């Protein structure tokens, strides 16, 4: 989704802004723009398409400045045209914005009455005019921005500069992410830390309702009540090389191959110190001992992690769970249960649907919350009572891969902690689970070694329009995840079903043109699944089956088989999803799509 970067410095900030925009590209966008302050003038350049086009325009026009803001836009209000691209300008004020202003129509009418002329279809343009409107009276950029944002309904992160104040940048956030990068006699703003790693690793994370006035040597923050606020400067553990591609062709490929490392980092504390509720924070034991049920809230891939966790927690800890799509829960009349633990799952921790679902749960009186998240400074973590940070490292590809498997590792850990607290596992069982978890990264390495075989499979998918994924039990959410991956980056329409459900409708779709991908681990449901696969074969469907070593499914014409190591028991979903990730990656390569930035999608979905 939209990316923001801004800088006040004593050097030309144009290259810093362009580099920052490149580092924000992964969020998804369709146009880009920059505004630089040059001798009391705003030099604005906007282009559609990729940041390199903007970079070229900046170079050709020799644009430079010691203060500036820049933006990548993911279109919501108005098509991805140059006129709709940010920054938006009103008089000497320039604004970049991430989020959605829900009352923009009312404000637009009011500003028109006041004589403002609108040149874009965006909701953002009202912010530029509003700041200008108030600035005319006060000549104070900070005060004008504060008055303007008080009029806005919805979500925003904004950066504002003014041509008469060459060393000043004003930033504000409500519902959309924004941080301040702290340098030496230079400061920055950005949507996320990765954009600023070449210039600083010290960050201030703004809170909802904060407004900041940023100069060369000063940062003053006011909170939502207009009071001066102290915000801690945090040292990021992220290193610039963590977000570099290295030897890989795409971030998705790199991130798939990083999974063994990501898993062992995520599990390190557990396998070293054993199963203990402190893993979730100081209140871990008291909260996790008090709860009687769990509601998971998440979106997309993270929702699939929730669905998998439900099987683990109900079976191992005996605690009833339900998993809900965050955007549905948010607007559903649900029955609150004070004994329920609300578990949100998110890679970014900034997904607007998940964040507002959590806030909704809190407003209903839910007091127990746990965030499973890959970004320790994110809004979701800050809003939750307990947290467990997955150690996947920055995930750049839009398709979530290592974030998913580390979420699963964190959720399996949760199942073990809850089971231990309820006396459902003894010391011997604990040791067995820990051994299995220790072995997981090595097993994952063996699965990754199957990439050549998967690549061959993918050649069959280049011409396909549709695909069907089947799984049962614990592996049904993995089938859902396989289908999501395939549609997301290869644009092949894919559906997933619990295999037992096939005969209740989807079997009608099966013919020789419909590849059916089945996940067939050697678990209690294998024989049932084999019968379901016979139903597919009998209708001429071509089967692609991911099996465990001892599954005894024969490869033959129209049954293709890829064999994983011996059945990994409860941890099997964490391994079985990997071939599906690789399949979608190679199918996308076959189709020539933009793997890391698939059309219409954004990495961090910060609008509802
Ligand atoms: O950052 P989150 O985990 O909250 O994101 C949720 C979804 O937007 C995300 O998982 C999405 O479905 C992925 N692009 C799937 O690969």
Overall description:
The protein is 37% helix and 23% strand. It is built from 18 helices and 25 strands. The chain has three domains: 241 residues, Glutamine Phosphoribosylpyrophosphate, subunit 1, domain 1; 200 residues, Rossmann fold, CATH 3.40.50; 146 residues, 3-Layer(aba) Sandwich (Rossmann fold), CATH 3.40.50. By secondary structure, the protein is an alpha/beta fold. The chain has an eight-stranded antiparallel β-sheet with strand order 3-2-4-1-10-9-11-15, covered by helices on one side. A seven-stranded antiparallel β-sheet has the order 5-6-7-8-12-13-14. The protein has a five-stranded parallel β-sheet with strand order 17-16-18-19-20, sandwiched between helices. The longest helix has 22 residues. The radius of gyration is 25 Å and the shape is globular. Helix 7 packs antiparallel against helix 14, helix 9 runs parallel beside helix 13 and helix 9 packs antiparallel against helix 16. The model has no long low-confidence stretch (mean pLDDT 93). 5-amino-5-deoxy-1-O-phosphono-D-mannitol (M6R) binds next to helix 9 and helix 16.
């Amino acid at each position: 989704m939209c990316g923001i970067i801004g800088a006040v410095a004593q050097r030309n900030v144009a290259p810093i802004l362009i580099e920052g925009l490149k580092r924000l590209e992964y969020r998804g966008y369709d146009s880009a723009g920059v505004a630089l302050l040059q001798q009391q003038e705003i030099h604005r350049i906007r282009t559609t398409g990729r940041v390199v086009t903007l970079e070229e325009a900046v170079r050709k026009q020799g644009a430079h400045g010691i203060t500036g803001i820049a933006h990548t836009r993911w279109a919501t209000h108005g098509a991805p045209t140059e006129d709709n691209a940010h920054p938006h300008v009103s008089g000497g004020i320039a604004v970049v914005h991430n989020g959605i202003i829900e009352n923009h129509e009312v404000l637009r009418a009011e500003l028109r009455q006041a004589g403002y002329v609108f040149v874009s279809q965006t909701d953002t343009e009202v912010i530029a005019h509003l700041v200008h409107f108030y600035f005319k009276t006060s000549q104070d950029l900070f005060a004008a921005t504060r008055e303007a944002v008080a009029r806005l309904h919805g979500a925003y992160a904004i950066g504002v500069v003014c041509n008469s104040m060459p060393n000043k940048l004003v930033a504000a956030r409500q519902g959309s992410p924004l941080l301040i990068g702290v340098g030496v006699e230079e400061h920055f703003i950005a949507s996320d830390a990765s954009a600023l790693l070449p210039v600083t690793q010290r960050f201030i994370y703004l809170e909802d309702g904060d407004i900041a006035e940023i100069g060369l040597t000063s940062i003053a923050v006011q909170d939502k009540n207009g009071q001066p606020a102290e915000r801690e400067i945090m040292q990021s553990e992220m290193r610039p090389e963590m977000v570099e591609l290295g030897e890989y062709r795409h971030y998705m490929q790199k991130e798939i191959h990083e999974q063994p490392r990501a898993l062992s980092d995520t599990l390190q504390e557990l396998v070293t110190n054993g199963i203990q509720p402190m893993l979730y924070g100081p209140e871990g034991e008291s909260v996790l001992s008090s709860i009687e049920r769990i509601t998971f809230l998440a979106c997309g891939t993270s929702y699939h992690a929730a669905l998998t966790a439900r099987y683990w927690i109900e079976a191992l800890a005996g605690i009833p769970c339900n998993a809900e799509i965050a955007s549905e829960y948010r607007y559903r009349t649900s029955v609150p249960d004070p004994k329920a633990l609300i578990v949100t799952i998110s890679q970014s921790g900034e997904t607007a649907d998940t964040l507002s679902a959590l806030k909704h749960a809190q407003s209903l009186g839910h007091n127990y919350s746990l965030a499973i998240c890959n970004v320790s400074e994110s809004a979701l973590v800050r809003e939750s009572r307990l947290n467990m940070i997955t150690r996947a490292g920055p995930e750049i590809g839009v398709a979530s891969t290592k974030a998913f498997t580390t979420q699963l590792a964190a959720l399996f850990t949760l199942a073990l902690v809850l089971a231990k607290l309820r006396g459902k596992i003894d010391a011997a069982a604990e040791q067995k689970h820990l051994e299995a978890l220790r072995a997981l990264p090595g097993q994952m390495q063996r699965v990754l070694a199957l990439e050549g075989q998967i690549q061959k499979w993918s050649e069959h998918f280049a011409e396909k329009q549709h695909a069907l994924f089947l799984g049962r039990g614990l592996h049904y959410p993995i089938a859902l995840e396989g289908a999501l991956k395939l549609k997301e980056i290869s644009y092949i329409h894919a559906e997933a079903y619990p295999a037992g459900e096939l005969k209740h409708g989807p079997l009608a779709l099966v013919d020789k043109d419909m590849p059916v991908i089945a996940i067939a681990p050697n678990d209690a449901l294998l024989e049932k699944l084999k019968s379901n696969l016979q139903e597919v074969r009998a209708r001429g469907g071509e089967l692609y089956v991911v099996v465990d070593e001892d599954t005894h499914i024969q490869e033959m014409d129209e049954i293709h088989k890829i064999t994983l190591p011996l059945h990994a028991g409860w941890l099997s979903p964490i391994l079985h999803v990997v071939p599906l990730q690789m399949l979608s990656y190679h199918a996308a390569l076959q189709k020539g799509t933009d793997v890391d930035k698939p059309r219409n999608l954004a990495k961090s979905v910060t609008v509802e």
